[in-house]
Amino acid sequence: MNPSLKLLLLLIVALEISFTTIVSLNVALVILAGIYLLAKRVKLRTLLWLLIVPLIPAIGLWSTQYINGTGQKELMAWVLFTRIYAFVFTGATLTLTTDVLELTDSLEQNCHLPAKFAYGVLAAYNLAPKIKHEVQVIRAAGLMRGQTLSFWSPQLYFKAILISITWSQNLAQAMASHGFVEDAPRTHYRKVRVRPVDWGLLIGGIILLQLGVFVMPWH
Amino acid sequence: MATIALEHLSYTYQTAQTPIFEHVTAKFPAHQFTLLTGPSGTGKSTLLQLMAGLLPLPADHGHICYDQTQLQNISAPDRSKRVAMMFQNPNQQFAMDTVEHELIFALENQRTDPHIIHHRLTSALDFIGIRELQHRLLNQLSGGEKQKVALAVIVAMDSDVILLDEPFASVDPDARVSLLRRLVELRDQRGKTIILADHDYAGYDQIVDHVLQITPTHQVVELSRSDWPAFFAAFQPQTLPAWFLPVPVDQPLFALHQVGLRQGQHELVRPTDLQLHAHRNTLITGANGTGKSTLFEALVRLNPYSGTINYDGHDIQKLRRKRYARHVALLFQDAEAQFFNITVAEELAQSQKYAYGDYFTPTRIQSALTQLNLAGRDEQVIYTLSEGQKKKLQILLMLIMQSPVLLMDEPLKGLDLSSIHALVKLLQTVQAATQQTLIIISHQLTGLTPLIDYHLRLADHQLQYVGEVRHES
């Protein structure tokens, strides 16, 4: 499916389940997303992690609601529990099966997002492993001067911001030197198209969602 | 195709008072290779950035002309066909993840017809001889490979003028030779104009057509051919005094057992056994990009390595980070990495507060500041110090800490000779009293040699001591 339309569909799904209290809908979404992920050959191990990791916040929400909630306590507890999983699984259908570059291409070509924004985000994403190392360097440099910088220490962030300012300037220069000019037209080597089937999937998905919300809800 | 002329160019940084260039008039002839020289901090990078249009030149500050056209009149999308730049830091010149994607990105920016992009990118990779890197992740390439990719991008973009800002700072000698050969081919076969800034001039006299110098009076002047021999002779490799080889001991400070270092898929140091000795000063030399800084990062656990490193008999991976950092500290190459406060006084106070030893009393700190010509700057914001002042302050801060071992990565970089002498004298005085162990990576050896006891050399992926065997008398 076209990455931009996929993102749009997922945003609509997320928005709609945030305002509904239908357990069956959440469960159906998790199952559908699970089937999609399996069809896309996502590793079983990864799926298992998707089940385990949200368990902590899910149980947290469930128990809070069950113990302290008002009104239909038990229903709301299960709604919140399944909603977390619905968010995680539908989100995973984008993050685990769509390449960031593909999404960037699509946002630039189909949604006409400014190229500056699209490539800026992409460049930042590609710098992520370096940022991780840089944070280690800052913390080590701190220890060598007798200062323990924890993850909530303002000095860690002050240093990180100083470094990112330098990096962003260098990166902007590098992009300019590789011919990138803000708002100038570019050609596209990798063409991303919106095919009729993409529109069909988007509209079909939205209709299916409304069926789940209004026609056969099981609370 | 493109002769570049600077006409009455003046430039001053916003934060600085003194100008970098004052009414400079100079010419870079087309189809020729020009070496741009000058000590670090004289404005080589700034000049190249101005010439590439990456730094805007204010009005009434002169002109930069490509043939007869002023740079600011060349429309931004056409600039990359006129001029491209290769940067010093190979890690910060790519926006994409793989080699292929970066080349496509650059070609798309030039509005190249998508049908010929594939051909352009493969022929550029073939020209540089790095077709096998096409699908590799940029993050996993060595410094030399990254610079080759950067040059391939420039070849693909087919820019008339190629500017290179100290491009070999993290490139190993083999890759440097191969890059220089490609640049000569670009000049001879494709008529490119090449302007390269470097502070290490070794090997250029056979290649370049012109040498331009940035002078202390903020001018750019051409060095006449007759002055070349004297100029290049001054940069022949220095002969080092022959130090003695260390005698192996049972309890060395560091014991490296089959330690190997890699950068992505590139082997830097072959697995090796080595001892480093306490209360002695060891100098580590080796060409750019051979892995000296990576070795230091491994010693302070910032970089993975194979084999085991023992400090004082203990595997460093099993020591607590906090405790180990108090024993073995690293003076980073980038001085700013070591600053955590705003003013000089705050930094000094922090080091005193956490110091490991009590050698540095307030009086001694004050005299060290005077010695390093840093006195009276207590309330100055550290980020407004000059690069040389930052370096000196950084070294003093780390000395005050009095960690038993201090690894120093290029401690003399960017310092003038009088600062170097003052610094070495301070190091000698401190060391006589505290028995601190120093391990030093340095290209700059003038003035440093009196401090050194042993010499480790990293070459051909081998790390070994060089020197004479000490005979028992």
Automatic annotation (TrEMBL), chain A:
<keyword id="KW-0472">Membrane</keyword>
<feature type="transmembrane region" description="Helical">
    <location>
        <begin position="75"/>
        <end position="96"/>
    </location>
</feature>
<dbReference type="GO" id="GO:0005886">
    <property type="term" value="C:plasma membrane"/>
</dbReference>
<protein>
    <submittedName>
        <fullName>Energy-coupling factor transporter transmembrane protein EcfT</fullName>
    </submittedName>
</protein>
<keyword id="KW-1133">Transmembrane helix</keyword>
<keyword id="KW-0812">Transmembrane</keyword>
<dbReference type="InterPro" id="IPR003339">
    <property type="entry name" value="ABC/ECF_trnsptr_transmembrane"/>
</dbReference>
<feature type="transmembrane region" description="Helical">
    <location>
        <begin position="6"/>
        <end position="39"/>
    </location>
</feature>
<feature type="transmembrane region" description="Helical">
    <location>
        <begin position="199"/>
        <end position="218"/>
    </location>
</feature>
<dbReference type="Pfam" id="PF02361">
    <property type="entry name" value="CbiQ"/>
</dbReference>
<feature type="transmembrane region" description="Helical">
    <location>
        <begin position="46"/>
        <end position="63"/>
    </location>
</feature>
From TrEMBL, chain B:
<dbReference type="InterPro" id="IPR050095">
    <property type="entry name" value="ECF_ABC_transporter_ATP-bd"/>
</dbReference>
<dbReference type="InterPro" id="IPR027417">
    <property type="entry name" value="P-loop_NTPase"/>
</dbReference>
<feature type="domain" description="ABC transporter">
    <location>
        <begin position="254"/>
        <end position="473"/>
    </location>
</feature>
<keyword id="KW-0067">ATP-binding</keyword>
<dbReference type="InterPro" id="IPR003439">
    <property type="entry name" value="ABC_transporter-like_ATP-bd"/>
</dbReference>
<dbReference type="GO" id="GO:0042626">
    <property type="term" value="F:ATPase-coupled transmembrane transporter activity"/>
</dbReference>
<keyword id="KW-1278">Translocase</keyword>
<protein>
    <submittedName>
        <fullName>ABC transporter ATP-binding protein</fullName>
    </submittedName>
</protein>
<dbReference type="GO" id="GO:0005524">
    <property type="term" value="F:ATP binding"/>
</dbReference>
<dbReference type="InterPro" id="IPR015856">
    <property type="entry name" value="ABC_transpr_CbiO/EcfA_su"/>
</dbReference>
<dbReference type="GO" id="GO:0043190">
    <property type="term" value="C:ATP-binding cassette (ABC) transporter complex"/>
</dbReference>
<feature type="domain" description="ABC transporter">
    <location>
        <begin position="4"/>
        <end position="241"/>
    </location>
</feature>
<dbReference type="InterPro" id="IPR017871">
    <property type="entry name" value="ABC_transporter-like_CS"/>
</dbReference>
<comment type="similarity">
    <text>Belongs to the ABC transporter superfamily.</text>
</comment>
<dbReference type="InterPro" id="IPR003593">
    <property type="entry name" value="AAA+_ATPase"/>
</dbReference>
<dbReference type="Pfam" id="PF00005">
    <property type="entry name" value="ABC_tran"/>
</dbReference>
<dbReference type="GO" id="GO:0016887">
    <property type="term" value="F:ATP hydrolysis activity"/>
</dbReference>
<keyword id="KW-1003">Cell membrane</keyword>
<keyword id="KW-0472">Membrane</keyword>
<keyword id="KW-0547">Nucleotide-binding</keyword>
<keyword id="KW-0813">Transport</keyword>
